[in-house]
Structures are given as structure tokens and as C-alpha cells.
Design a protein that fits this description.
Layout: H1 3-23, H2 32-50, H3 70-74, H4 81-90, H5 104-115
Length: 127
């Protein structure tokens, strides 16, 4: 083996080691779709635990006739992903009536779930 060949092999070996060290161990990550699905599932769970006493959180009529079903809320004209989160932060700020606040860290989860109910063909129930 010539000195040049040995030198090239040594450089290749060092480069391989450096790449392995800087890259580190492979860590499993959730795909964006899986992460979104987890947000949706947590949002549905939150809604079932904290909202279902008044609102229909999946479909149908609400237990409290004065509380709109989630389908009716999310399908309001002009309500979008951008306007939903601020609306959720302030939607129950009438202490005499509801006195209910949603923890800020739960807003993303609840919004992710509610957005799954958006349907361009939605028509409100006849009152």
C-alpha cells in the first residue's frame, strides 16, 4: 500500500467517524400528520370532558339548547383556523352565564379537533 493510498483511507475513515459523531443517534420523530392526529385526539378528549355537558361535541343536538353544537360553531361563515383560537380564548368570558376559561395550552388541541368538523356542505338545523 502506498503512502498516498493509506492517507486517502485514513481521511475517509476520519470523515466517516466525524459524520457519525455529528449526526448523533437516530431519534424517532412524529410525522406532521401523526402529530396533528394526536392534537385532534387530545382536543376531542378535552371537549368530551369539559364541553359535552353543554355542547354537542361530535354531532347532533346539544344537551343545553342554548349551547350551539360544535358543528354549528365551526361552520359559521368567516370562522377560520386563524380566527378560531382567539375566539376560543374569549368565547366564555361572560361570568354571569358561563364562567369557563380554556387553558391556553389546550386551545391548540381543541381548535385542531373542531377544525375536523368543518364541512363546506354544512347546513344549520332548522330552528
Amino acid at each position: 500500500m502506498t503512502i498516498r493510498t493509506a492517507f486517502i483511507l485514513m481521511l475517509a475513515s476520519l470523515a466517516t467517524c466525524a459524520f457519525a459523531v455529528t449526526r448523533g443517534p437516530a431519534t424517532p420523530t412524529l410525522s406532521a400528520e401523526a402529530n396533528d392526529q394526536r392534537l385532534v385526539e387530545r382536543g376531542l378528549g378535552f371537549a368530551q370532558r369539559h364541553c359535552a355537558a353543554c355542547h354537542a361535541v361530535e354531532s347532533g343536538g346539544s344537551p343545553n339548547p342554548q349551547a350551539p353544537p360544535f358543528e354549528a360553531v365551526i361552520n359559521q361563515q368567516g370562522l377560520s383556523a386563524e380566527t378560531l383560537k382567539p375566539w376560543l380564548r374569549n368565547s366564555h368570558d361572560f361570568p354571569a352565564m358561563m364562567n369557563f376559561a380554556i387553558d391556553p395550552e389546550k386551545i391548540d388541541e381543541l381548535a385542531a379537533y373542531m377544525l375536523t368538523l368543518k364541512d363546506p356542505a354544512y347546513r344549520p338545523a332548522i330552528q
